[in-house]
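Researcher: Here's a chain I'd like modeled. Treat it as a single chain, no partners, no ligands.
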Amino acid sequence: METGEEFGPWLARQLRLAGKSQAELAEELGLTRAAVSAWITKRSVPRPTVMTEIAKALGTDLGTVHTRTTDTQAGLPVTWYHRPGYHDGGRDGGNAAAFAFDADVQVLARETCQNSLDERLAENGRPVRVRYTIHELTGGMLDAFRKAILWDDLHPHYSSVSQAASHQKVGRVVDAGVRDMFEKGRLVLLRIDDYNASGLTGDDYDDGKFAAVVRRQLESLKSGRGAGGSYGLGKATLWATSALGMVLINSTLSVPHEGRTERRVIGRLELPWRSVDGQAYAGPAWLGRPDPDSPGAQVARSWWADEETVASLHLTRDSDEPGTSFLIVGAHDVASLDQSTVDLDADEEDGADDDGTRDVRAMHRRLVEALGRDFWAAMTGGGNRLPLLETSVRTLRNGEVVIEEEKVDPTVTQPSRTRALRAFYEGTTVDRLTEAGQVALRTVPLKLPLAGGRRGTLGTHQAMLLVTDAEDADGVPNQVHSLRGNRMTIKKSGVAGLPLGVNAFQAVLLTGHAAGDSVPFTEEAEDFLRAAEPPEHDRWGQTEELTLRWSHTAHHRISRLTTEVNAAVKELVAKPKRSAGEGGTKLRKALTVPRKTAAPRRPAGAGLPELDALEASIGEAGEWQITAEVKLPRADELPSMTPTVLLDVRSGSRPRLDWAELVAVDGCEVEDGVLRFSPGGRRAVFKGSTDVTSHPVRTALTRLVLELRAGKGE
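Model: Modeled as a single isolated chain. Structure tokens:
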């Protein structure tokens, strides 16, 4: 049986909900007001015989009064509270925070799983368990759910938004979601449950996790060291993924609130400004119990729901383990319209007459893919390091299983990287790769700057670089996955300037707490790198926070880390030079690197920058994709150079191709197609892709020459 709230505070709230005073209750019970006051202030409790009379006075059963695990149903019922329009006439066309992310279940998985990792109860050593449930409702189950969320009360608000849909983006999304529900008679729910997490603790309004998620924007109150989130924007993906702008929440708390922990329920609706029956509404709305302490009880707060209510809202949790369940109502996945994700062999009943955004089978596949790609390291353990995370995905239709629950296995989704991380945890790494299956370890320095714009270095944090052979199941080969404290993949990048013909590999860079708590400057590295991440937490680079807290050049420390990583990887994977009789790869034959340009354009004095290494591939659109490394001479000033791409022909002049894109990677800048090099550097890297419309023949039939010409290269 649940531990109920203390009698005094519980009774005080029931009186407020019922609109009764202490004197009125005392009169109904035939007692003095002082007796009731003593109960409220916890100086005494009523006798068992009086409990029965109190239940009658409150219009509830005796069991509710004894257990006090839920509020009575007397007085103010659960309802939707809509925030009134602004008095100054201002209007919001939706929640701007939701536009920081796409309506993409893979983005949703990344953000919500990161939040669950940040709220893991680390004291017990167990992982946080996160389960995604896709549930399509039709027929009677859909009707029952609409009744549970009080759809009739919401319908005028949705109608108002639909009427104005042609004028703003959010309205068009909501209108499409409502039409899909009624015209096609179905609704997709997507629920995210986490267990062994802190839950939404704290007061409804004061500082705490509950208010940060449900009431506020751009506020992040994370529990643990090495937290992934820092902007308070990740929660917006929940509402961005709902075509109806609605999310329902059921939280089991790790720290009691009002004497209870289970079934703390609330809903939040994100709609644009609207007018209903002449009354203007600002945008958001909350499903909850009217707060008797607010003026006119016009504000909704969370309530302690009974099991029947939670079941009707599809929010029943599997156990009393702390954590939170988020139910996205009207889930859609716009990114699934990418043809590369469509299953052309799917049954017609699974979405052939649909635009694809609500295909539950496609959602299932994309969730599993995203979890395995971004959180493989958090799900990996070894030695004395335990996994931080377990994830699974299941799909239902009207309560019946469509796809069985699928536990994401990192050894299947990322076999090479998982092997590398386990070798690190178990201490079985080697200095060099001499046999298949080995994992090589190198330390790579990250020199941390002094805060406040001061010159100098605070200290050097040694990041851990792991390199091993790649397997087909890993996806794109020759990649570095960079992680920090919560072991979510932050950055995925290729290695520039690899020698052609190297064996395919995968690399992992561990920084901050992921490198080990015994590594010097772990906390400082976590803080610095977290500040270098954008809201998506998918790269490290220049950010406003990095500039404000350190300096406008602080991101160069990360660039130097990348250079050190690339150099270490190349040293580990480089093969001994082959004899002239050995053949190269097909792509190597198709790419020519002249060591000297034909045109006498060299300026007098110091030598010119020179192409040193290249890698190339043919893209999906038939374009050449090239990564080039430039060797820089020792000089105080370096001339600007123009990379020029030509077709190799047997006779006549070489046709010149246009660049569709030319970007700097390290040690240089690109301005109007010209490379300008950073002074004092020894290496620079740039990438480019050719414009297919400038190709005179099909790419696969061509050979390529890349030249580096002085000046503008005309």
